[in-house]
Fold:
Amino acid sequence: MQKCPGATLFALVVTTGIATWVVSLIISNAAKVIIDENGETSWILRFIFTILGYTTVFLPCYVLIHLSQRHNLHTLGGCQWRLLRLILTGTTSEIVAEADISSARPSNTNVQTLYQKALSLFYCCAGLQVSYLLWGILQEKIMTREYTDGDKIEKFTDSQFLVFVNRILAFLFSGIYLLLTHQNVHRTPLYKYSFCSVSNTLSSWCQYEALKFVSFPTQVLAKSAKVIPVMLMGKLVSRAQYRSYEYTTAVLISVGMTAFLLGSGGDKKGNSVTTVSGAVLLCGYLIFDSFTANWQSALFKEHKPSSVQMMCGVNLMSCLFTSASLIQQGGFFYSISFAARHPIFIMDCLLTAISSASGQLFIFATISKFGPVVFTIIMTVRQGLSILLSCLLYQHHLSSLGILGVFIVFLAIFLRMYYAQQHRKRKLEVNEISGSKV
Structure:
């Protein structure tokens, strides 16, 4: 087979990138003619711009990966192919040692005790609660508050820039940590991070945009049903098998959280009215976020990266995609000029990025240790706890429906833990019986 020369490969990638950029500009201008930039459906225009920005990165990378794998270019010697090997194999070394693969992660024979699992789960829960309670408050503040500059009052509208700031700070944190500490051998192809990176940035984008159309309690209410789409996406992405009690408790958690949120006084005056656009954006958030958690879980199982390695890889790809989209849309110029007019906006962005980065550490740790469904249950309960805390601190009314919802949620969690423990016991008994027969 004739190999594709490096110069030809580079020319094809650049040509694809330029062609994609030109087509994106044509589609963007056509979309501006069809969709009103100041109407309620203007978010569709922004979504199209975002997708086109990602495409200008995704298509050239696809050409690079496809041709490199087809002609085995990543197996060639020389410094010029190290980056290509990193993209395709997750490492710059030319030969993958079997000893490295086997020692990449601790053996599963070191089974944790129930106390150790409970303690680890408690740390993950606490970290997620603190990080994302703060993050939720700050993101609502940025997207809904009015910043004043003398007599001029304006709102920040570029959700993409907020996603970029969150991701680049998380990448810097994780990258510095990897440089300063000893980590397991990295064996995850970088291009595989791009799929959950795109879905992760789009879920964050939908979440920010939805706040322009629905109230924060309405957004929390929609998130309460996330356990079910996560399980359904798990069957599609990784062919996960769930037992009947897992489906039952997932439905109970969703029903309980819905009853609690509806009965917690979340429909007070001052909340924006839910619109069709808001509902579509919330559905988009649920779909993208469900895919993200399950894809990350699949990467943990297949390639076994550490939580920080996963965080660094995903955020590296997120920075690449969001920066390309912002450059194409002129978002950097708008956001920097807005920050120059409103210095308090810079502090809000930094605090949001810090809370998001710390939350990501706990997200990846939770998914790698307990899986995407347990992580989703923790985040679902967090939403209820945030509103319950608000009711206690500010003496909001909690109706009998809300109290019933709390009872249903904790009953479902107890049943899930009980049946999971019973299943493990039966599995151990079967293994012992089969072992004694041998």
Notes: The beta strands are 147-149, 152-154. Residues 20 and 55 are 7 Å apart (CA to CA). The first strand starts at residue 147 and ends at 149. The chain has two domains: 1-93, 114-437.
